[in-house]
Amino acid sequence: MLTGIDYFIVIAYLAGMLALGYYFKKFVSSSEDYFLGGRSMPFWAIAMSIVVSDIGALDFVGVSGQAYRFGISPANFDWIGSVPAMLLAAFIFVPYFWKAGIYTIPEYLGRRYNNKVRTLASLTWIIFFAFNLGVLFWASAVFLEAIMGWPVWLSIILTAGVVGLYTYFGGITAVVMTDVVQMIIMFVGGFTLVFLAFHHVGGWDAMVQKITALGPEYQNHFELIQPTDTPTPFPWTGILFGLTFVMANAYMIGNQTVVQRCLTAKNEWHAKMSMIMAAFLKMLIPVLVLFPGLVAIVMLPGLDDGDKALPLMIKEILPPGLIGLMFSAFFAGLMSSIDSMLNSTATLWTKDIYQPYIKKDADDKHYLKVGKITTAVILLFGIATAPVSSSFPGIYVAIQTFLSFFQGPIFALLFLGIFWKRATQWGGLAGLVIGIGSSATLHIFSDQFFTIQDPFLYVSWWSFVVGFVVTVSVSLFSAPHDDTRLSGLVYRLAEKMNSPKLAGGK
Amino acid sequence: MLNFDWLAGVPMDVANGIFLVLFALIGVAVLFVPKDYMYEGLKEIKWYHNLKIWAIGDLIFISWVYYIF
Questions:
Q1: Number of residue pairs across A and B with CB atoms under 8 Å?
Q2: Model's pTM, two decimal places?
């Protein structure tokens, strides 16, 4: 499928990424440089990095496939599933995280509640990232083998080698700056495909007309808001309660890979602005990943598997050279996800587990070294466990499900933590543990609780409610931290404490 | 109740309206954010540093998308 020029473009891209990432090695001399980029990043770089890290190579295929089956409703995840949450993060949560000088979200939870909450949250993320890395390596390599003909191990070694080297040496600065280039490549490749695809079907209006003429099952393909009895997994009630109110917030406010980027900002304004700009860029993502799936309904009707839509579209539409660019975009998606997981796992391990529990008072160079070693170990773990995932076809879904158990309860803790100073350490711990238990129960017995086939949106909402109610209830019967400890961690508490009137002055 | 069956009778136009109202409420909340809070961290302030402008821009764009679809 690939010609000489395509191979040249892909290899030039990989070499360029390696050189660019390695260049940032010289900016790393402390653990703060390695994990927070010396708190010197501009908003535009952070915004682009947040967006590109969120799209993996498999998302191109998976979302196109969903568009082929369900129409435009999956775009809710990038539109209403991002923008309100990112604005909430920009104006409320991120400034507090940035001012608190934290490295990780579990560190905030530890300061706000207690170290048990911090450790539980941190271990959850570490386990998720570590196992997800192997699955991501394998699934992406299998996909690249199918469409490029590259042997699985070649893709894994190439990706791991390039990403591993620049993340190991350059830390988050290298991760963010390579992400900037990766986003540009992804947007150029993706938009070129969309432009040519629309040209093939005669434009947007012609495509809509052709699809809706295919039959009654396509009548809702251009409706974002789906009825509660929709055959898709996206009823509007689930989109509103599960996605908008819980999952989106849990992801944009509670996900270490997202928030860690904002913590690298050079000042508070850049931290806020990074989220606002990222919200705008996120709104363009459905154009890249969803529209090719819609065009495929017209060009390639009757596919047995929607996930075949994008690879076949590339084969049908793109000329030599542009195919190489599109595959570079796939690699960009894969690499940006992997570098984020590596650096975030190293941060979580070093700051939340190693420093408090294994070696407390070492010098900064020691923690920098631990961060680098952890990056290498996690990378090797990902490579080693990659083939294991081939023996367990459902492992990708299992890992995502495992993480989804935590989304609702973690957001309940963050929400109450910042807005309600009466939330106590024991309330937080009980809310987290019981909330996770409720997620698992709802998931295991979903047939008895829910009428739709894949009720993950409803599960996240109800587990949030359980986590919220338990945290409030237990908090009311336990002693809160004093205001001094909570200053800077609870919304406007520091300002109230400094106000002469509220502090007891005149 | 867990399936939100009690909302099954809500017409789709009303459901769409709920999303648009949500964007409008967020927009109002953004407008109420104190002015100083917009510029914290900056030494020199220009008009384009006003975060409200960009946040409202995001909301207008997404409202337009949900109005169309």
A1: 101
A2: 0.91
